[in-house]
Write a structure and sequence with these properties.
Helix content of chain A: 55-70%
Distance between the termini of chain A: 32 Å
Strand content of chain A: under 5%
Shape of chain A: elongated
CATH class of the largest domain in chain B: Alpha Beta
Oligomer: heterodimer
Radius of gyration of chain B: 29 Å
Number of strands of chain A: 2
Helix content of chain B: 25-40%
Largest sheet of chain A: 2 strands, antiparallel
CATH architecture of one domain in chain A: Up-down Bundle
Strand content of chain B: 15-25%
CATH superfamily of one domain in chain A: Transmembrane di-heme cytochromes, Chain C
Structural class of chain B: alpha+beta
Radius of gyration of chain A: 21 Å
Number of helices of chain A: 10
Strand order of the largest sheet of chain B: 9-2-11-10
Number of domains of chain B: 2
CATH topology of one domain in chain A: Fumarate Reductase Cytochrome B subunit
Distance between the termini of chain B: 65 Å
Strand order of the largest sheet of chain A: 1-2
CATH topology of the largest domain in chain B: Alpha-Beta Plaits
Shape of chain B: elongated
Amino acid sequence: MATTEKSVRTPRAPARIHGDDPSLLRRYSTGERLAHWGVAIAFVLLFLSGLALFHPFFFWTSALFGGGQLMRVLHPFIGAALAALFYAYAARLWRDNRMTPGDWSWARRMLAYMNKHYNVVPEVEGKYNAGQKLMYWSMIVVIAALALSGVVLWQPYFAPAFSSTARKLAGIVHAVSAFIMFVGIGIHVYAAYWTKGSMKAMTRGTVTRAWARMHHPGWYRRMTSPSPPAPRTSGAGR
Amino acid sequence: MALQSLDIKARSASTFAPPSARTTLEVAKLIDVSRCIGCKACQAACMEWNDLRDAVGVNEGSYTNPPDLSDQTWTLMRFYEEQIQGSLQWLILKDGCLHCAEPGCLKACPAPGAIVQHSNGIVDFHEESCIGCGYCISGCPFNIPRLRKEDSKVYKCTLCSDRVAVGLEPACIKACPTQALSFGSKETMLAQAEHRLTDLHERGFTKAAVYDPQGVGGTHVVYVLPHGDRPEAYGLPKDPSIGPLLAVWRSWVSRSLGVFTMFAVLVAGVFHYMKVGPLEEPRDEPRDGPGDGQGRPPRDASS
């Protein structure tokens, strides 16, 4: 700590961001992290407000949004913000989320992985394992379904342009997709909590070498091999 | 409830057991289309009693004026020109809420108490609880509720619940000069309609029928239609029902199962963590540095 502060103060020393430990590997750029947490906040708000409309048991959450009517006004705007932010963010990650044959064999061993029987689980080659990739693609689909059905339900701007049948169908699609999204995000949050060291990837942008070696050995090798230049720049690991 | 006449039978988006100590008389409005002369006195009386003033529009080549129901027009005389059995018929229908026994609007509504069904059969909107989502509009098989742009609230005929509550008949009934409109217990109204049917059949309207659609459990606005085999000629749906889509969309069972499953996912996470414990990586070895190229941890490293 002391040496870090000293080097920061030394005028000719190269600039170093506070806490940027050289032994750590960069996993997410600042932009990616901000986008992720923007999506996360929007999701929490949407989930709380949507839950009030989903089941009367939870109508009290509307009080958090200034009452039912204001909540109904806010919900679709937050949804539009989430969709815009999510797809901008997802566009940066899609290359790393292409499924490979190795991923499918990993996916078949997912239960063993969840029970920490590593000896039967194939090595992860990419920046993400198959579970993360499937989560990525399911969110791509589910958020599209939510956004499109949400437009059909959006009063007073778009809903009047659609037939009553279309609006009822959209209501079903919206509810089912929201349910899938909640379960998916629930698994996502839990997996991040369960896999120690992952949370830092999204809070500080870095992971430890030991974490990378264990969870993403292929990515670790690419990040640490001397041949490709600048392995520690943001968004690296492709 | 303060007024017995306003005992509530069903309340939107509520886990609600209706008070059942007393039974209220089920009411109905009978609209005898065969007696209607299309004078619009009922429409004017509705505006008068409910303090509604629709915008002055333009003539669109029909006596129907204004052209549609709105937040300011809760009942509307609709005029149709139809070819029936080789002759031109001028059909007139007093359109408005039918006060279904199984109201689709109430089933669709996600705002607690924004739509209530009184035990006398009146389906009423409580605008102060309305959130403006418009789901009731999708839920209504008769296309009746109208969303007001200025306040994002939905309005429709109340069957003058305020008048009925104190023993008065709805304003439209009071204004009708030809006794095309009657109000009373549903039983009496149906008997009166049957009596009128006999009359109409004798006069050659052999297809005359009572419109009290059972697909929505019957309604508390009942029509006598001279051409009862063709309700769609009057702009009324032939076999209205809430329909499977609304039943799936607003199903209590699936929603409760959904909430239960979401809760179960949280519990499963806790149980998994208790059983399996956290997934931890081994500590960094001290001699580790960039480019060591090894990559693989020992297989048992995480324990």
